[in-house]
Amino acid sequence: MVARSNSADLVEAITALAPLALNEPVFVSRNGEDCFVVMPVKRYARLLALAPDPRRAVSLADLSDQDAVDILAAANQYFASASQADPERHQNLGKPSGR
Length: 99
What we know:
alpha+beta, two-stranded antiparallel sheet
């Protein structure tokens, strides 16, 4: 089931996040942990169409160039924030494993 919230409850936060989220996904954290992503509905719909079941793997061939760029940017943002939160634990995140 999808939960919904009244937009009036989020006006202040969304006012600040909306301009940023138009260009790239914005991660919202709670207690230092990412828990929400703000993005345009059209982008969410594109991603949902690619993988209606979140457990389903998506091939890179199924992604548009923009989707691939967005995913890479989100991953880089996540790794950057994770390494700042706990540098020692995350020192090798995003680096090739050498396999």
